[in-house]
Amino acid sequence: MGQSVVGEQRPVRWYREITWTQWKALIAGWGVWTLDGVDFLVLTYVLSDIAKHFNIPLSTTSILLLMTYGVRWLGGLLFGNLSDRIGRRMPMIIACSWFTVCAVLTGVSWSFASIIVFRLLLGIGMAPGYALGATLVGETWPKKYRAIGIGLQDTGWGTGGILASLTYLWVYPHFGWRGVFFVGIIPALLLIWFISVAVKESPIWQEQIRTKTKIERQPMFQLFSKHLGKVIFLTVLMFCLFFSNWPLLGLFPSYLKSLHFTHTTISTLGLTISIGQLIGFAASGFIAEKFGRKKGLIYMFLAGIPSVIILTAVVHSFFWAEIWAFICGAFIIGSAGIWGSILAENLPTEVRASGVGFLYNIGSLGGGLAPFVVLAVLHGSHISFGAGLAGATIAASVISIIVLLFVHETKGVNLDNIGDEHDPGEISITDPLGSSHT
Description:
The chain is built from 21 helices and two strands. By secondary structure, it is mainly alpha-helical.
């Protein structure tokens, strides 16, 4: 009695099974996605300042979000195609350099037209930030922890949101709206150095290249010629998912400004919703591994939908607004941590980066369109800002759940066997017509 069985071993904690090489792949993807988030999200805090500076309506300024997203599909496809040909590391370095330079150019812009040009260019460069990292992590981490790794990488966006809030809180009062676009320069240089010297190439991609004598066609052409049904279905899914996130992500600071909240209150609530995102992204991988990709995402939406209604109802009470802003961030926006797993686990290695890059970013058009649609509806109706923001979030979330009902589970699929019709473990997505694409 009371004696342990000889030779009994405690189960190894999951994080101890991850090698240092795999952790460095995650750090690289997380870092690029974090800086990507800072350079993009800081714009949402100064949309009204840009409108005032150039004497244009806020609804017109919101086009900056739409136009940046409007070209991301192109950047995702081009960088993804490059990554499928030369590897995952170098395109990550190019992308990080690209969007950092474009953010700086935004800060020195001399007209609204010049801002449009620089944000269009930034959209091309920021497009692969998530896709390349998710691909590298997915191809590097053990399959039983793949969703956890991709979910942890997605915390970079939440971290970027936190840093954007702190930038607005600390930099904006001293340097104005232009100054907030310069904060990413030094971190970007450090990250580029780290990827260059410390991160190893994807072993799955290296094996793919080793076993092929040549690449017969451009990966982006193979994506559409061999997997068109899957591309169409996943495009619809990603569009709906992005639309569900971006009324909150793109308009929450402007909504708070419309209620005449103080600069400190806006920053604090923005920081809270970003912290919620961070927790949600981190938790999403564990949720996806426990319940599966499909059910995990649906459960997070169902938990988040009521929180949006409550947040807009209690927003004038700072205490309750803080609580429900956190919950909205954790469940509605944090659910995005599962998206990368669904994409990466449905595309074969030879087109994975091209596919994830294209699909994630063509779907992001829904995110860019959401703030514009909400503001346009508000302008032509008597709906309040809060009701419009909540209504758009809820409607898109419900539609996303409906689309997800047609998604087959991909938990545990072998990435190196996707696309092999003879693989008994192949799991696919069913398109709206009901035919299965492998």
